[in-house]
Amino acid sequence: xxxxxxxxxxxxxxxxxxxxxxxxxxxxxxxxxxxxxxxxxxxxxxxxxxxxxxxxxxxxxxxxxxxxxxxxxxxxxxxxxxxxxxxxxxxxxxxxxxxxxxxxxxxxxxxxxxxxxxxxxxxxxxxxxxxxxxxxxxxxxxxxxxxxxxxxxxxxxxxxxxxxxxxxxxxxxxxxxxxxxxxxxxxxxxxxxxxxxxxxxxxxxxxxxxxxxxxxxxxxxxxxxxxxxxxxxxxxxxxxxxxxxxxxxxxxxxxxxxxxxxxxxxxxxxxxxxxxxxxxxxxxxxxxxxxxxxxxxxxx
Length: 300
Ligand SMILES: *Cc1c(COP(=O)(O)O)cnc(C)c1O
Description:
- The structure is a single chain.
- The protein has 300 residues and is of the alpha/beta class.
- The protein folds into two domains: 2-38 and 147-299, Rossmann fold (3-Layer(aba) Sandwich), CATH 3.40.50.1100; 40-145, Rossmann fold, CATH 3.40.50.
- The protein has helices at residues 16-20, 40-54, 69-81, 99-106, 116-119, 125-135, 148-155, 175-181, 202-216, 244-257, 266-278, and strands at residues 10-13, 24-29, 59-64, 84-90, 110-114, 139-141, 166-171, 189-194, 228-230, 286-291.
- A six-stranded mixed beta sheet has the order 1-2-10-7-8-9, sandwiched between helices. The protein has a four-stranded parallel beta sheet with strand order 5-4-3-6.
- Helix 9 (202-216) links the parallel strand 8 and strand 9.
- The longest helix is centred in the N-terminal third of the chain and has 15 residues, at 40-54.
- The protein is globular and about 60 Å long.
- The protein binds pyridoxal-5'-phosphate.
- Pyridoxal-5'-phosphate (PLP) is lined by residues 39-41, 69, 144, 146, 170-176, 262, 265-266, 292-294.
């Protein structure tokens, strides 16, 4: 299944700020693995799709907001790997469809809009059973691909990456971070930048994910997660909130290094890392910034 994806390149960048601080910066370009199923979303889909295939499901049903990178990637992967896909979208339909949903529909994804109150029930058996009554035998992947299969895929993100002391990434649910900690050693560290306001709640979620994963018997290269921490003050007001400072930062970054960043996830993390280095708070000598993709969202 992975054979259509390229291995992610690691790109060094020379920034004056980091050179002055004695910090070496590299970027893991998960955004370049595939034009459509790129970033961490591929890793979170991978074992979900293989379980669906093993169990002979022909239809995948999943959940997301109208700009969701996960909806986009699932629609693309469904088309490529021969699954019918259904996207349950939070909120009402807006015509014309935004570029994310236009793309999903073009891949053959069927969309179902549900109101925000019902959407909150997306993890309940009641709603899932109702959807199964409506659509028949569907393999359900949770929003964002955030389950133990998703975490299992994320363990592989850093499997070939050994030489860095600190790994930085943007966090939504923390599933990607949790997976990564299981492929590192105790001398390495993961720094997660929650893009939601009040991201401290993620600590408990990540600990729960780790406990559940290690209890599940699924394969893990190490049974003691590498140390990790959350940096919660670079959310810019919350999910998908953007200001001019962030926009300008992303534009300058692209101009200087030729690397595009998305405003929802990677832009905030890169901003945070550069800010911490400039202020002298990040002294680790070799940093790996994970570009988790999400660039399709910049069209919306
Ligand atoms: C979904 C997403 C994340 C967050 O992943 P989690 O596993 O939910 O923490 C980060 N970056 C991008 C680009 C994403 O699309």
